[in-house]
Design goal:
Distance between the termini: 52 Å
Strand order of the largest sheet: 4-3-6-1-2-5
Number of helices: 10
Order of helices and strands: HHEEEEHEHEEHEHEEHEHEEEHEEHEEE
Mean pLDDT: 88
Structural class: alpha/beta
Shape: globular
Radius of gyration: 26 Å
Strand content: 25-35%
Helix content: 10-25%
Number of strands: 19
Length: 388
Amino acid sequence: MSKKFSVNGTLKDSVNTIKFLTERKQFIDNAPAVLPTRTDDFGVNKVAKCLHPKEQKLIISRIEEHKDIAKSYYFKSENDLAYFKAGQYLTFKLEIGNSVVTRSYSIASSPASALNGEYQITVKRIADGFVSDYILDNWNVGDEVTAYAPEGNMTYCPLRDAENIVAIAGGSGITPFLSLARAIDQGYEDCTLTLLYGCRTSDEILFKAELDGLAEKNEKINVVYVLSNSDEEGYEKGFVGADIIKKYAPRGNYSIFVCGPGGMYKFLESELPKLEIEGKYIRFEVFSSGKKMEDETKEFNITVINRGNESVIKANSNETVLCAFERAGIVVPARCHTGECGFCRSKLVSGKVYIPEGEDKRRIADLQFNFIHPCCCYPESDLVVRIN
């Protein structure tokens, strides 16, 4: 049985519609075959390209050494630098031997520095640090390096965070909070900062003179140093835990931002619940704890399908799938190395992988259709993985 539908309207409406369609077709037919303005010249596209460039070519303008344990690298560019929020990081793309790798480093400079054409990062030497050792031993003034646009979510947002920030830093994890302190002092961020900076000894404190100077002249900034391996006068002793946070945290609501080594993260997992703070007010910089070393390292084969081409590489059970890719010289889009950004997302065609607890940040659809983030997956069998 068919149904009849009626549309309310008049003959005049129909005539006007036909006239409009006819005029529009004539306008399109008479238009030139090229765009009157290049898409790159549109204002919105200029802004997008400036804020989110695919790559940035940076020149190392100067290098500052910190007590033989770290170096700060300052970068300039012939083009405008992408703007950033205090707390974000830069991801660098490097070629080391036959390996193509990416590594992320928090930006230490204030957002104003990008407007003035400069970035700053700080790299600390760590035991068996493949990329950090390469940077510290090979980067020189005048070298050109490749970085992606600033990224990261550990930034102050007044709609989400409390006005008072308690920042817990360990080692080189001080850099995003140095950026935040500078931004507060320069008026780019409107919040207060209580910085609890943990190190083993006072010799390992980075940027102490500047941090003390910022705290002395700006009442919105307070800095407390906590030493785990020293009883030096004028410093807190031990680890940054619930007791020290309660001692120095401001009254009322406050957010907690954390950036530092894995040991600090593990310790705070049991300490922060004692504060009875809502989870939305606790922010950890992305961090990959890694899989515990096994008694016996196993070796597996990974068949890599890359744009229709297949290759077989070796992988150890104690290294991530992404590390195996990098070691074999296979270029994979990657940024954070923690599973958060999803740039390295790949299809696990077959095989079994291990993902450390708390580091599986895949979408529900990816879980359903067996996509993985190779940066936080460890092989537990031979694998077949399709990338790109």
